[in-house]
Amino acid sequence: MIDPNLIAAAILDGLAYSMLLFLIASGFSIIFGLMGILNFAHGAFFMIGAYIAVTFFELTNNFVVALVCAAFFGFLIGVIIERLTLRRVHGNPIAQIMLTLGYLLLFSQLVLIIWGRTPKIFYLQYLSGSAYRTFLVFLGFTIAAFTYILLTRTRMGIIVQAGTVDAEMVEALGINIKRVFTLTFGFGALLAAFGGAAAVPWLGATPQMGSTWMFTSLVVTVVGGLGSFKGSFYGSLIMGMLHGLSEYFFPQLTFVIDFLVMAIVLLIRTEGLFGAGK
Amino acid sequence: LERENNMSKIIKHFFEALTKKKLLLASFALLFVFPIATPSAYYLSLLAEMLIWALLAMSYDLALGYTGLVSFGHAAPFGIGAYAVALFLRMNFPFPLAILIALLFGALVGLVLGIFTFRVGGIYYALVTLAFAEMIFAIFNKWVELSGGETGISVSRPEFLRFDLLLYLMFAISIAIAIVLFLTMLHNLKNKNETIKNKIAYCTFIAVFLAIIIYSFPLKLNILLEGSLMEKNRMIMVMNTYYFIALIPLAICYFIARRIVDSPMGKIFVAIRENEERTKMLGYDVSIYKLTASIISSMFASLAGALYTPFALSISPYSVLSSAIMINILLYSILGGLGTLVGPMLGAGIITLLANELTSIRGVGEYWMLILGIFYIIVILFFPYGIVITWKIKGVSVKKNIKKLAKLIKTSMRGK
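YS: structure for the whole thing
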């Protein structure tokens, strides 16, 4: 028989993992929906957030400061990248993909040079093990609710949603869509960096995490529906739970399962489980 | 006497046919001359590696550049081609047969990748193919008995590379080809109807050829005539032959690909890239053409993989199937220019050369990937359409400038 404690642990792991996935995938999905960019640099933001959190935690020994600093730097890097480079190749999807892939490569190497090859991790005395995972679940749900309110109840959020449907029309209504693009990109980077920082006490920070989390979040958004905020939430729940359960019960399958699910979803329902379709 | 006339006519026609595509011919000629002069096995192997990546980049151009299939799974046919050759060589199959089998497997992968186009398009196709390639990678990575896991599997050099006579024969043939090409260039240079651009190309070729003959051919000949084939010289000869094993398929594939893209079928490929709906409305069965493009492109990629195995001698899932290969292919294509065939090959050559030269410099080597990343971003920002297309767009003014310069020289000469 399967031990019920094991099942509980697997579910908790899965939920906590889903929340981290949500933090990276929601920004990725909003950016794709609004700007049509498949942002491969998003995994790099996650990784940078993790390493910045490590540095600030070592400096101040305060987890909240580390989280805030990671989010702030994530936002800054996102805004700079969008404003200075991505805007120049607007309307050339292949160049956009290549450029963001280039940033993934660049940041992975920068991290290797600055922080070294060995994984970094720090632990919190007051929050560890399953307590930290529970905290992650609460944190994730709070941020999901917060982002949802931001998207549906504020003027900026409404503009972003309208831009997802038809960016040119929004521009025609006299809204500076380019600034919206920049801010949305920065906000996506902020969420990802925040997620990376939150992941450190549980999973640590490694130079490879940029690409691995990138691909997982890609799978999540594709399963949930590219460009849909709700889709990214449900998608991360599904993939996170699958990940947690398979890690406990079928460890040899964890690597294949992501891409298998993605291929099946794409071939059966191209727009994803919660996507609107076009 | 008449017969002699005929002979000279045939030779003349041969030269004329040979020189129709002049710049291209000059560059292939240069490729044939390189190995004569290179006295080091390292550089020969570097050149061969450049050719293999060039073939891979060209194969990708057929899919992405001409048909507009944004496939992120192009590492799969390459890696499967490489593994097919490795596994069948280990079973003591002859090398040509192993290559044929690899092509078959490549066509199979191309079929699967092509069938995906029936269901999904655009960015979703990219993601499905990425998922497919990652799954193949994961399967090979986990199935250690088949792939050797992280350490990979090694193969010995194909049998025929051990015959000394063959090695010498290849060397002699390359010299003969180089001499024929040299004479062709001289012949063309005398032709008054040639454009200035072509003349410059010929002059460059002749200059390089002479420089090579004078400077390094004696060096290499000296090495080769030292007596029996010792280990070091042997390596040079093996690499020499290997270079041709890579160059000849590349040349053949290039001409096949050129014929394909210039044929009516190639025009339909481009039509699909430009406007799929309209092509469908015109009555073409778009899915069949996409499938064909995918299969052809995958077969070329698997050929590149098949040539890579006996060259690298040891392959692992990380070296032939991972997403790093895919990123490299994209980089080659974007640097060179999509939809030009020559562009991606050029990009592959430049980047492989840079990678090898920079990593060998101490102090720079560790930062090589960083430099590559920065280089990558700069290329995309400033040449979003690649070297060849940028040249084609801006080349007009360059050509004019060359003409101006030539005129200036002429008038100043007359003034004297």
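YS: worth flagging: The domain at 4-268 of chain A is CATH 1.10.3470 (ABC transporter involved in vitamin B12 uptake, BtuC).
IM: good catch. Also The first helix of chain A runs from residue 4 to 35.
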